[in-house]
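Could you please consider the sequence and fold following this short note?
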Amino acid sequence: MRIRTALTAVLLLAATATACTGGSAEPAGAEASRASAAAKVLTLGSGRHWKDIDGDGSHISATTTAVSYTQPVKGVHLPTNLAGFPDPEWAVLEVKTCADADSTNVIVAQSPWTLRLKDGTEVKPLGLRGYGVPAPTYPVSAGTVRPGSCLRGKITFGMAKGSRPDRIVYDVRRRPAVTWSVPRA
């Protein structure tokens, strides 16, 4: 009786472990495929299509694109202390997000965007809009892109004079980061 009880417990444990690991709706290799796609470095102007499940369980999907990168930018009138560097050089990243027609509203912001230097240092956006920054400004905290429409705007960064990023990174939690290369000046 004890052997049968122990054997039943082992079989139940094995069945539970198999159900937890094998119950994925994704085909075999999908995770590796996602990781491979996330590792690919895109060129400016190329978009990355993504899909997710929104907080309320609804379908959300869009294409996010790093359109252009300009450094230095003339005509930016901001206090130099905003950049965190003495005598900063201003840079502008233009980005675009297009929500799929069958998606729910896509919320966008500047915060998932960073510039990455060759040494791995990340430069975060200034998070500014209004006077002193190039227009149109990409939403600072919570812009809405309705299904079937696009939103395009500029994000301003302060860079140490003489430094230039080699990568643009769009990193939203729960999704693989997307990376674009920055062409040489």
